[in-house]
Amino acid sequence: MDQPRAGAACAREVIDGLRDWIATDGSVWLHLLKTLLASFIAMGVAMRLELSQPRIAMTTTFVLMQPFSGMVLAKSVYRFAGTALGMIAALLLGAVFVQAAELYAFGLTIWVAACTALAVRHRQFRWYGFVLAGYTAALIGVPVVTAPDQLLLATLTRGAEVMIGILCSSVVSALVLPRHASATLVSALEQREASFNDFAASVLRGGLKRRVRERRYARLVEEIVGFESTRRIAAYENPALRRQRLLLAQLNNAFMDACARLHALDQCIKRLGLIDEHSALALCLHELANLLASSPCDERALKRFATSLDERLSDTSNIDVTTSLELLGRFTRDIVRLMRMRASIASGEHYPSSRDERTGPRYAATTNRFVVAATFVRSGVVIAAVAWFWIATAWPSGGLAVIAATLACALSSASAKPAKFVAQMAAGAALATVLGYVYLCHVYPAIDGFALLCVVLAPPLAAGAFIAMRSVIAGYGIGFCVFFCLLAAPDNAVVYDPGLLLNNGIAIVVSMLVTATACAVIVPPRTPWLVGKTLAALRAQAALACEGRLSGLNERFHSGTHDLMAQLLGLMTPSSREHRRALAWMLVTLEVGHGMIDLRTLRASVNIDEAPVSVRIAWSSSIAQMLHGVAMLFRTPSSATLRRAINAVVSSIFASDALLQCLRAPQAARDLRRVLACLHFIRSALVDPTAPFDTHR
What we know:
Elements: H1 2-23, H2 25-48, H3 54-64, H4 69-96, H5 101-121, H6 125-141, H7 151-175, H8 181-205, H9 210-237, H10 239-243, H11 245-272, H12 280-293, H13 299-315, H14 319-347, H15 369-393, H16 398-411, H17 418-443, H18 450-468, H19 474-488, H20 498-521, H21 528-547, H22 553-571, H23 577-605, H24 613-635, H25 639-662, H26 666-686
């Protein structure tokens, strides 16, 4: 009996170990195998169809393949659209500027720079569509700019080769041992909820240092932005999650609400200096912390706790306690809402919502217009300079240099360090040139047959794809794979001309070094002036909370703020002075902006008809002046705007107190007390000495 049991235990250990390997290192090997399989199938199909350059189809697979099936499918949709748009642009440019290389280069420069700028403006998968629209036009049009009679055929041929690469990538990713982001989405949501509850419990107990809290809030920003990307990927893979897309969007918005509310509560507690551990409020904080720390968290207990807070809120007249209890109650209800939504997603049920199913909350991805303009100028200067040198010197490999510059500008547009990324691509292209020379002179002549061709191509391409999976050194792998395929991958009719290969390789490397230099000199993304514009756009989100249309404002405010902060985090060195200041601005923007949205929502619902007209007018006027003053503070922070904003908030508090004395209806008085709590909290945020409003105070 012992031997069978020991054998079963050993088998279970082997299976568990295999599962762990598949989830970690195994996933890397699986991705490499699928990438090579897709590239070889694309090359074989293009050769069988006797297309002139199967290398284009092969290159497409290396640019397109991703670890999850949904990522490939999503990219494929936009790649189809971008390729079609690029084909049309190539035809139009070639037709308008027939045998006029200078004018064609000018038109191509404007087109590619505009597409690259739009890719920066419309990020995530739409980025890829705009990038493709730009460099597909260059890939098709540049080689035949002086032979317009071949333009239509070249357009159809290049388009067919690119489409073959797209189809092969999609089919292999979807059918060969597919990995689905949707399969891990529910478990990831559960882990995120548990991690956030633990963090919230630590904050409520006051056991975390300031630096630790700031780092955790920065990670929350990355989790929110990353979830939005994963949600869109999963929608391509799973029809059930596609039907729940609005629920997933609401879940992410509710999580942003809870994060902002937790920070507001943390700041309120810190400013009040609640050191009496036996006070009623301190006991409430510890009670909620214990509920959140319990595993699993009890939803019913949280609801009872929120109800008890409402009763305590009606029994107290202390404005500090009222403010803290109001925030505590709202935060508890946010946690309950998150738990219900996550449970509904796990069970496949529909979470009841009052929203219109057709509109739903939208994640507002925002890019500052100055960043978009800088990208346009940088890309235009690079492509124009390389194209001018090509035309002025009649460089035989100059056309490929223009294509390489276009590729470098397009692929680096999403990088926070484009100069470094393009320099890595240049190093990868240099290695691809050397290895391509070896393959062209010594390997290809010694082999025969498609199977053996795949065998000899697999090691270098697998090494390049492996490096491309490492974010810090991805440029080396991308540059090697893309340009090894473009330079040295075999066509149906292989041209054994090492001199041409070396000249083309030198053109590519020089072109990308020029691009890297331009990215480092011409308004790089980390330019303090440009970072300041993005930071100003982040602060302007608080002005949006004060002045924006109230319908859907909460979603627009939170998603825009977190998206802009994610961009800033990518541009700054972690724990640097600039990083901490940007994080401080994000937190105070969330703090005040969320308070303003709560205040405006409460103001719209409070009934003040029984108050005298003069009191109502004075109250409405003071609230309007306060909203304007706070908006101006975040647009142009200074000592003067800070004083005006604080005075406006204090005036609103006095006006609200006067109005409260005139109200007799219990519900109206309760709602106005909540308005007073919001005003008191906003005032405490503005007078906080650690706030970044005025560096001189």
